[in-house]
Specification:
The protein has 186 residues and is mostly helical. It contains 9 helices and no strands.
């Protein structure tokens, strides 16, 4: 199944969800179309599975982020996987495609709404744990922090789509916002 998902991801990155055909996906994956249909009853099911994989990657990113010491070096290391690698740029492209699909497909829209709530809760958990451990002051508002950091990250990801060479600049901008939001000594 991973081989099919890799082939589909490659096709979707090159051609988008709607332009890529099952025949192209089967060729990219090196499997027959019948093999694809054994795992996925439709292209939409394949798209939803790829979105779920992307969302799990995002949860892992959040966990990794909140487990740092919030030093500039630690945050830059986490963000480098996204903003300084071809794989990170591919994630940004796929996330844009996913957002577009959410505007057209009610099932994907619901999946994204549900996921967004879960992602924000993961950020809240990270903030609560950090406050409990004395890393942040008790007056730090988890809702405001999660909202600001999410908006900044999503905005920078959109800019990164068109300017992948500016990855280091985006990391610096995110750290600046993070330091201000969390009242860190930058």
């Amino acid at each position: 199944m991973a081989q099919i998902l890799d082939g589909a991801r490659s096709c979707f990155l090159q051609r988008g969800f709607h332009a890529a055909s099952i025949a192209e996906i089967s060729a990219a994956a090196g499997v027959s179309t019948a093999n694809i249909y054994q795992y996925f009853p439709s292209k939409e099911a394949l798209i939803v599975t790829l979105i779920e994989v992307d969302l799990r990657r995002h949860y892992d990113f959040i966990a990794r982020f909140w487990n740092t010491d919030f030093s500039r070096a630690a945050i830059e290391e986490v963000l480098a996987d996204i903003f300084l690698t071809p794989q990170g740029h591919a994630v940004a492209v796929l996330r844009a495609e996913i957002a577009s699909e959410g505007a057209r497909n009610p099932q994907v829209a619901e999946l994204l709404r549900s996921s967004e709530a879960g992602l924000l809760e993961a950020v809240h958990q990270g903030i609560r744990a950090a406050r409990k451990n004395g890393r942040f002051t008790a007056d730090l508002d988890p809702d405001a922090v999660a909202e600001r950091l999410s908006l900044v990250f999503e905005g920078l990801m959109r800019l990164y789509l068109f300017s992948p060479a500016d990855g280091k600049k985006f990391i610096a901008q995110y750290y600046s916002q993070l330091a201000d939001t969390l009242q860190l000594d930058a």
